[in-house]
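Entry 14. Two folds queued back to back today. First construct below, sequence then structure tokens.
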Amino acid sequence: MKYYTLFLFFVALNSYAQDNFIQGTITKNDNSMIVGEINYQDWKKMPNEIEFRVGSTVAVFKPQDIKAFEVENDKFISRLVTIDVTEQKLQKLNKTTEIKFEDKTVFLNVLAEGDVNLYEYYDNRTHYFAENDSHFMELINRITIGDNNSDIYENKKYIGQLRVFLNACPSVKVKSSLDYKRKELAALVNAYNICLSSKNDKAVYSKNLQAKTSYFYVTGGISFSSLTLSSPANTIQYFEGSQCVSPNLGLAYEFAFTKNRQKWSLYSELLYSSFKSTETSEESNSFRSYNPLKMDFKTVDLSLLFRYKFNKDNQVVTPFLNLGLGRSFVVSQNNTITENDLFDPSRTKDIPFEINSANFVFSVGGGADYKKLGFEIRYTVSDKLTKEVSDSSNTLSNLRLLVSYRLK
């Protein structure tokens, strides 16, 4: 049943991942603005259209339909561009490869704005565009093949283009080693815009390219554990199981999916816990009794959980749900069943009772984040703890109350 539930969760994950409507704005071609929700997919490849929702009405806009849009601190503009579409796959390149350009209207991601604007576009490769008051053009970076069809050359035309665009601030140098990468280009253009902003008071914008998508946590809490025994084996057939309360301590790492990172993440956790209890039984056979059963084992659980956050703008508390699988490793155990001779009470011996060194664990839980703190109630269960007989059904379940603290 638990694996069926996990399957349903993955189906729901795929369904939810298709839609990620969050607050955004659209600027129409007449410069009027509309506030609503945009189906934001944290695009790498620029979309040919976007979905915009106001209430229950969803409209689709292509680049030629609007002037710009903003969503999740990201800015996009619509622009007719002349883009370099020259073949760049090495296996298809030769010395006669034709240089090609194509005109089309696309969405561009805004990386920097000021005296010089920098835009990014990705189709099958990355293109960067620079703009000032008088010019708008692609920054060209192209590989070519030499006359013998073996030598590969890189045409870094963007170096010279940027030296022309950024020539009004002597302190900003365009080095020949400048890479054709978003962080390096954005940092350079932003430095130039800041340099000139003190002179002309022009507003400066720079996209945050350091958005954090992963976090480390320390976790702790308590477990209300229940061991259930159901086996015809002679040594444990008289016991039904027992309970205990124990502390937990661990570390966790959360990685937000690039797509829908405000809602979906993968939460991996390493959690130490222990189980210690004594169970007695009044039953016996004709010659012996087995009493008591002492359980004393410690585990480290490695869990991999999908986390869904009910994330909305400006909320202080963010509820979440967790569901996933893990592996519980027994790091130490000292479990015994005391065998008593009914004819000679002085004859007793402790029989070791071992559980499997590792078991699969199914987890489901929910909680909420508040600033750097997280609070969660989680239920875990693992079965087939022992190998007494093939039809044994011995389970360990835990109701855990956990508190986590997010590290910097």
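Second construct, same run, same settings:
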Amino acid sequence: MKILLTGATGYIAKRLLPVLLDGGHTVVCCVRDKKRFDTSKYNTDLLEVIELDFLEPDSLDVVPEDINVAYYLIHSMASAGEDFESLEQKAAQNFTDRIQRTQAEQIIYLSGIVNSEELSKHLRSRKQVEDILASGSCPLTTLRAGIIVGSGSASFEIIRDLVEKLPVMIAPKWLNTPTQPIAIRNVIQFLGGVLGRKETFGNTYDIGGPEVLTYKEMLQKFAKVRNLKRRIITVPVMSPRLSSYWLYFVTSTSYRLAVNLVNSMKVEVVAKENELDQLLGIELIPYDEAIQLAFDKVEQQEVLSSWTDARSSKVLEGGISNLIEVPSYGCFKDQQSRKITDEQVVIDKIWAIGGKTGWYYGNWLWEIRGFLDKLVGGVGLRRGRKSSTEITAGDSLDFWRVLYADKKEKRLLLYAEMKLPGEAWLEFRITDNTLYQVATFRPLGVWGRLYWYTLLPFHGFIFDGMINKITEVPDTEPQEVIK
């Protein structure tokens, strides 16, 4: 079967893709930027990658006409823009128009549970997209899910931040809202299970785990699994705006995502009963077991995807290709270089940078910069990294985005997603047994230049200290500094 997979760089699609390939299907992945999609991890000729933008109808001509099934996994919940509803509707309409001109016999859409009389803006948008997809001639199978629990999911990481960082929580009253969390493993089983099943064509199914829990109970169960004692006090006076700021500063989420999550968490999300799990032979995973499975993946360094994989900077909407050539004209640079004796040791250190490893020198200053970034609405340092040893183009890395990562070429290029009066790149490159470390800043107006000169005294010892630590060899002579 030939399958079109949209949202291929997103959290769900990255989990679904290996399952489809293992099933012997040919999968055509839709991406806006091929450089963000690492095909090297899929050793198969069943994979095809096409570059398009569902907001641009003319770009959809590259969609093959001989596809059999299309997965629609595009969501804009974390969009930096205010009007993500209109963007989602436009993308869905363009997708529907194009699919009707192919041989597709089924569209599969992952939506949200919308059984409450009052819906959040986010859930209302999901329902509108569902209606658009159903309006076409191609049969639609809709799966509606609530909170998805899995390593790297936004819900998992937010709950983890709250439970592990706060012994006592003063929380808003929406923590008493009922919801029905579902394990990511079950979600993927449902998505794969309805593939080509004609009895599911034209039908909508709510999918959820075996338990209905309040958000407070979810936090308490999470703490129990982690052997932590936590006290949660709910108060009725915390406004949605204050709740959003609370989530934003305590967890790794962006403010825009925090706003959408808070608005959604005020809505009861409980699945209507159906027999789809029995039809597909799926055993629903309890919430505490889903948590443990997620931590098993984290500890084994097998997190396949993260919610931070999605593009979070408006600047990056033009694609990685537009940023991968580091500018030189009109830029400030801090250039460091050191001779090295063991390339592999240095490469391993570079590929482990950020996250729990830190930045090797002046970590407290990096943390202050991350906190200041949060204060002005930036991403901060809490996003961390998906794996402690592997880096792929498109990955988030604290408040950086990976533009290029190639161990064979011995080059790592990062782009800053922190709030800046300009643009910043950080590059590590090894040539002729020499590590070159270059920080580049392209200022925006007077404020950009003032920003650079204000931080110039710190750059000297931060970047100098960082390259010294990266190239440091125990019990040997100091590294030679290249003038």
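Quick look at the second one. The chain has 13 helices and 19 strands. Residues 391 and 461 are 26 Å apart (CA to CA).
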